[in-house]
């Protein structure tokens, strides 16, 4: 297969210039999102033609790896594919298969290569199949090189900055019959008002910012997601109002470091101020956000959380390490003492808050003493839950070049100890609300037991209780009968 590479670059003014944009074809709108609507219409024609020939609709399937940002991007990608005439398939045995990839740790990356072999076998059976790859992994030049060389059956490759352009790229693939690659190094462009297909009708993610400027020394995200860009508050509010009109009661404000929201806007506003404005939206019941960097968590935010009726009683506050020495090498800009002091301040202002965290084990140079300090913080803070990760070396990050990488068996042993500690504490902490009545947003029928539904408390804990589908999307009062460690069994209160 030939390659059709968009030799994309950024001009001095930071404006994206792609070879496609320069073709002077009459009638193609130059402004977004009209331009993409135009390409969606063109794709719809092509999809219809193939569909007519085959006598069946063309299906699409998206598999998402990684974090909430990717999950939210996938809703936009699915929205575009449905507009382009596909119907949603249920498995990779579909006509258009898209992997939205993650590269934060090496194993996320390896899983994608593993599954590509399977996709190739499916493509041999279905000549109409198209395989597309996008997301964070595609922002790594070595990955794209490898795909170009050894995975030539892939049809479409694009990155994290041009998700909104899927229809245009797909049309290019239909037109040229060649592999299309479109990767941008960065952008300051944010395209509003594109279609999106939400997984849930009653809750939704809302991007408030893109990218990250923190450069924690182990982390690849700033390299693959680019510099921090905040959306205008008016656009965010408008989107949420629209969502609420369409039945959404809970939103999750998304950003890699929501606490630095708004700093680079023309008229800067704080994250706390944004929350105040979101709180005023009538009909919206619950507000969540993620992720908070401890270094930027302000007293103003704590005050807003304490006085809010809508902000959920849950804060994800990644610790990464309990050793000030390691935190310094991680470039996190807080010490163990500052972190502990911050959690105390939050707990004082919002006593019923549930705290969760992320912890990395085996960062280069981590000694047994450093690790024990992490255990100490875990014991002091008593997290509801903690995501624990084995340090993964990411090429190009400062930590990858550091000396004293910790031997695998030492890391494994520490990881197991940490996990045991985290789980023991969380089993005690999570049960604290047993025998009380709590408000629960009902999300779906229970996946194991017929006749039960599953919902979420404000503090993010899961509750299962007898109920029917008509409750889905509603906030109801539930009596927590029994704590099962990480979740409750309950019963509906009239
Ligand atoms: N922006 C968020 C985190 C995004 S990545 C924040 O700063 O909190 C999610 C988590 O992946 C991080 O919190 C970190 O614990 C983990 N992580 C990131 N890079 C990693 C690496 N190289 N090895 C292991 N875990 C990593
Ligand atoms: Fe990565 Fe740090 Fe940015 Fe989070 S804040 S995405 S850990 S660089
Ligand atoms: Fe992964 Fe990208 Fe999220 S690297 S964790 S999908 S920002």
How are the SSEs ordered, and which strands pair?
Layout: E1 3-5, E2 9-10, E3 16-17, H1 34-54, E4 59-64, H2 68-83, E5 87-88, E6 96-101, H3 106-125, E7 130-135, H4 141-150, E8 156-158, H5 166-176, E9 179-182, E10 203-207, E11 209-210, H6 221-225, E12 229-230, H7 233-245, E13 250-254, H8 271-279, E14 286-290, H9 299-307, E15 314-316, H10 324-329, H11 336-349, E16 354-361, H12 368-381, E17 385-390, H13 408-430, E18 437-445, E19 452-457, E20 462-466, E21 475-483, E22 487-492
Parallel strand pairs: 1-9, 4-5, 4-6, 6-7, 7-8, 8-9, 10-13, 13-14, 15-16, 16-17, 20-22
Antiparallel strand pairs: 2-3, 11-12, 18-19, 18-21, 19-20, 21-22
The structure holds S-adenosyl-L-homocysteine, iron/sulfur cluster and FE3-S4 cluster (F3S).
Subunit structure: Monomer.
Pfam families: Radical_SAM, TRAM, UPF0004
Cofactor: [4Fe-4S] cluster
Describe this structure in words.
The structure is a single chain. Mean pLDDT is 92; it is low at 1-5 and 7-24. Strands 1-9-8-7-6-4-5 form a seven-stranded parallel sheet, with helices on both faces. Helix 1 (34-54) crosses helix 5, helix 8 (271-279) runs parallel beside helix 9 and helix 12 runs parallel beside helix 13. It is globular and about 65 Å long. It contains 13 helices and 22 strands. The protein folds into four domains: 33-182, Methylthiotransferase, N-terminal domain (Rossmann fold), CATH 3.40.50; 200-312, Transcription Regulator spoIIAA, CATH 3.30.750; 325-430, Transcription Regulator spoIIAA; 436-492, Nucleic acid-binding proteins (OB fold (Dihydrolipoamide Acetyltransferase, E2P), Beta Barrel). Helix content is 35%, strand content 21%. It is α/β, with parallel strands linked by helices. It binds S-adenosyl-L-homocysteine, iron/sulfur cluster and FE3-S4 cluster.
């Amino acid at each position: 297969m030939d390659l059709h590479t968009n030799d994309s670059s950024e001009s001095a003014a930071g404006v994206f210039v792609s070879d496609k944009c320069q073709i002077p074809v009459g009638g193609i709108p130059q402004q977004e999102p009209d331009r993409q609507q135009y390409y969606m219409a063109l794709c719809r024609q092509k999809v219809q033609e193939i569909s007519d020939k085959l006598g069946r609709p063309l299906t699409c399937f998206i598999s998402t790896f990684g974090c909430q940002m990717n999950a939210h991007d996938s809703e936009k990608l699915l929205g575009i594919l449905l507009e382009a005439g596909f119907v949603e398939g249920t498995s990779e045995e579909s006509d258009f298969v898209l992997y939205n990839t993650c590269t934060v740790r090496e194993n996320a990356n390896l899983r994608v290569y593993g599954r590509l072999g399977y996709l190739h076998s499916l493509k041999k059976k279905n000549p109409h199949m198209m395989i597309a790859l996008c997301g964070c992994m595609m922002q790594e030049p070595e990955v794209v090189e490898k795909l170009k060389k050894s995975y030539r059956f892939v049809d479409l490759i694009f990155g994290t900055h041009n998700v909104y352009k899927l229809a245009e790229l797909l049309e290019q693939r239909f037109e040229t019959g060649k592999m299309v690659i479109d990767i941008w190094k960065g952008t300051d462009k944010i395209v509003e008002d594109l279609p999106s297909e939400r997984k849930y009708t009653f809750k939704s993610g809302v991007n408030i910012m893109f990218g990250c400027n923190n450069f924690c020394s182990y982390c690849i995200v700033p390299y693959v997601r680019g510099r921090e860009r905040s959306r205008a508050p008016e656009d965010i509010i408008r989107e949420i109002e629209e969502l609420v009109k369409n039945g959404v009661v809970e939103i999750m404000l998304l950003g890699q470091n929501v606490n630095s929201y708004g700093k680079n806007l023309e008229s800067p506003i704080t994250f706390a101020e944004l929350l105040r404005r979101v709180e005023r939206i009538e009909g919206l019941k619950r507000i969540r956000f993620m992720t908070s960097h401890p270094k930027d968590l302000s007293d103003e935010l704590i005050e807003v959380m304490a006085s809010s009726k809508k902000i959920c009683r849950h804060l994800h506050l990644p610790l990464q390490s309990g050793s000030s020495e390691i935190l310094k090498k991680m470039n996190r800009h807080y010490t163990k003492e500052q972190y502990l002091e911050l959690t105390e301040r939050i707990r004082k202002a919002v006593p019923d808050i549930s705290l969760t965290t992320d912890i990395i084990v085996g960062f280069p140079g981590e000694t047994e003493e450093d690790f024990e300090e992490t255990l100490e913080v875990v014991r002091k803070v008593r997290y509801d839950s903690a995501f624990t990760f084995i340090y993964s070396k990411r090429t190009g990050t400062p930590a990858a070049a550091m000396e004293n990488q910790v031997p695998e068996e030492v890391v494994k042993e520490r990881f197991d100890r940490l996990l045991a500690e985290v789980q023991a504490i969380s089993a005690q902490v999570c049960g604290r609300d047993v025998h009380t009545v709590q408000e629960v947003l009902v999300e779906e029928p229970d996946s194991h037991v017929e006749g039960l539904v599953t919902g979420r408390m404000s503090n993010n804990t899961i509750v299962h209780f007898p109920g029917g589908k008509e409750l889905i999307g509603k906030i109801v009062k539930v009596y927590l009968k029994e704590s099962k460690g990480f979740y409750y069994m309950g019963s509906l209160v009239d």
